[in-house]
Amino acid sequence: MLKTNICGVEFQNPLMLAAGIMGSNASSMNWILKSGAGGVVSKSFSLNPHPGYVNPTTVAVDGGIINAIGLSNPGVENFKEELKKIERENNVVIASIYGATPDEFSTLVCEVQGLVDMIELNISCPHAMEGYGASIGQSCDLSHTIVSASKDVAEVPIIAKLTPNVTDITEIAKACEEAGADCLSLINTVGPGMKINIDVAKPVLSNKFGGMSGRAIKPIAISNVYSVYEAVDIPLIGVGGVYTYEDVVEFIFAGAQAVQIGTAIMDEGVEVFSKINQGLEEFMTEKGYASIDEMVGIAHD
Ligand SMILES: Cc1cc2nc3c(=O)[nH]c(=O)nc-3n(C[C@H](O)[C@H](O)[C@H](O)COP(=O)(O)O)c2cc1C
């Protein structure tokens, strides 16, 4: 009943781990999969190791958290070793990659595609990319270039992950679709946001600015999924503030085929996956829905 199929990849249920939360090593991803997630997305990684920002990198605020981790990661070679150790039993493994140039993205696709079912392109990375402006995902042209370069070499479905921090997300979505993206995930964090420590009169985060996630961003994510669903013909994965089965139903009715969960795991623990699956199944039985497919996009006229 909870199964969903995205670009020919079958998920046992529509819940997956969002990039950046517990996705740095095989043991935490195995734990998430054993806890009921249909799939996991790794932490975003790059060709070479990247230190990220110094602490503090996250701070709690009303309605969620603000983070500026800075995409710290040990590089592709290390990540490949972790991906090899994931226990594959009826689950879906997605690698999240980022880079500064088309070549870096296509090299990463070639490096990891033998180990995963799908690849998510983090084109919504908030910090400056050498020679590529502030953020790839804020430009239709750069998004198109990066998706095309990745698709040229891809043998697995490519997901482009979109940022909400743009004037019109549907334009970016259409550029990615035109470039050959198989699927879109949305949204990455909202911002920039800031929290000031009033005792020392300084921003809390070492980077001062960060991206907001958690409950408060859900309405923004829902409206973005709703708008993008009307603009493109490829499947969507909803992300942003999913805590309950009711949140998942909202995303599916708005047009998502599945959802990713990040901040809720920090607040509610890994049990959030089994709790949501159970609630979702009861909701579907009570309302007479036999499959996820028949629920997708029904909030549209
Ligand atoms: C601590 C933290 C680290 C994150 N790291 C990444 C990352 O490496 N790559 C990425 O695409 N998104 C990253 N994100 C964004 C999440 O994947 C997700 O898009 C966002 O947090 C909204 O979902 P949520 O409200 O369920 O957390 C990160 C979010 C948080 C809170």
Secondary-structure topology with pairs:
Layout: E1 4-6, E2 9-11, E3 15-17, H1 26-34, E4 39-41, E5 58-61, E6 64-67, H2 76-84, E7 92-97, H3 102-112, E8 118-122, H4 140-153, E9 158-162, H5 169-178, E10 183-186, E11 190-193, E12 196-197, E13 202-203, E14 210-213, H6 218-231, E15 236-239, H7 245-254, E16 258-261, H8 263-268, H9 272-287
Parallel strand pairs: 3-4, 3-16, 4-7, 7-8, 8-9, 9-10, 10-15, 15-16
Antiparallel strand pairs: 1-2, 5-6, 6-14, 11-14, 12-13
Helix pairs in contact: 3-4, 4-5, 5-6, 6-7, 7-9
The structure holds flavin mononucleotide (FMN).
Residues 18-21, 43-44, 58, 65, 67, 69, 71, 96, 122, 161, 188-189, 213-214, 217, 239-242, 261-264 line the site of flavin mononucleotide.
Plain-language structure description:
- This protein has helices at residues 26-34, 76-84, 102-112, 140-153, 169-178, 218-231, 245-254, 263-268, 272-287, and strands spanning 4-6, 9-11, 15-17, 39-41, 58-61, 64-67, 92-97, 118-122, 158-162, 183-186, 190-193, 196-197, 202-203, 210-213, 236-239, 258-261.
- The chain is of the alpha/beta class and 301 residues long.
- The chain has one domain (4-295): Alpha-Beta Barrel (TIM Barrel).
- The chain has an eight-stranded parallel β-barrel, surrounded by seven helices.
- Helix 5 links the parallel strand 9 and strand 10 (183-186).
- Helix 3 packs parallel to helix 4 (140-153), helix 4 runs parallel beside helix 5 (169-178) and helix 6 (218-231) packs parallel to helix 7.
- It is globular, with a radius of gyration of 18 Å.
- The mean pLDDT is 95.
- The structure holds flavin mononucleotide.
- The site of flavin mononucleotide (FMN) has 27 residues, from strand 6 and helix 8.
